[in-house]
Design goal:
Helix content: 10-25%
Structural class: alpha+beta
Number of helices: 3
Number of domains: 1
Strand order of the largest sheet: 4-5-2-1-11
Oligomer: single chain
Shape: globular
Number of strands: 11
Strand content: 35-45%
Length: about 180
């Protein structure tokens, strides 16, 4: 009986949450993050928009909000490309602008995957990659979950590998920002 009530509560609560379906990328820019005392880290700043207040949606369910990016052709693999952190930039009328960032490369030694981030139960290590050498299509979404695993996941936005390659190559010419690419 207790499990049935919990299942019913999950169905009712999930149906009350609005799901953002209009996430789109507004701009992307290459930069070098020197904020750590380690080696500089090359990153891509991703500014995206939504008509939903994502932080408000997450707080309605008692969850935290995060961004996730992965290589579209291998969604079952875990790639540590994105920072899970999202920052609200501003709110213009009915449009909210947010920012997150992606690492250009991860060539460290293989690292164990925490159970909570596994996309595949057999996945053991994070994949290493370098987008400056081999650009790939990247899929991106925003999600929020609470302790009962109730939450939302936005639409998935695909960024073509050629767009990422052009962005990374533009760092030499000084033209860092691509606008309106999706």
């Amino acid at each position: 009986m207790k499990h049935m009530l919990l299942s019913l509560l999950c169905i009712v609560c999930t149906s009350c949450v609005s799901y953002p379906k209009d996430i789109s990328i507004v701009s992307m820019s290459f930069y070098t993050d020197n904020s750590k005392n380690e080696n500089p880290i090359e990153k891509i700043k991703v500014v995206f928009s939504s008509s939903d207040d994502l932080f408000n949606l997450a707080s309605e369910i008692g969850g935290l909000i995060s961004a996730d990016a992965y290589f579209c052709e291998i969604p079952s693999e875990v790639v540590n490309i994105s920072s899970p952190f999202i920052k609200l930039l501003n709110h213009k009328g009915e449009i909210f602008l947010y920012e997150t960032d992606w690492r250009v490369k991860d060539q460290y030694e293989k690292r164990m995957i925490p159970e909570s981030t596994k996309r595949n139960k057999n996945q053991i290590y994070y994949m290493n990659y370098d987008l400056s050498i081999e650009s790939r299509d990247v899929c991106f979404f925003v999600e929020s979950r609470n302790i009962l695993n109730i939450g939302f996941r936005s639409n998935i936005v695909t960024v073509d590998g050629a767009v990422i390659s052009n962005l990374i190559n533009s760092r030499v010419s000084g033209t860092d920002t691509l606008r309106g690419e999706q």
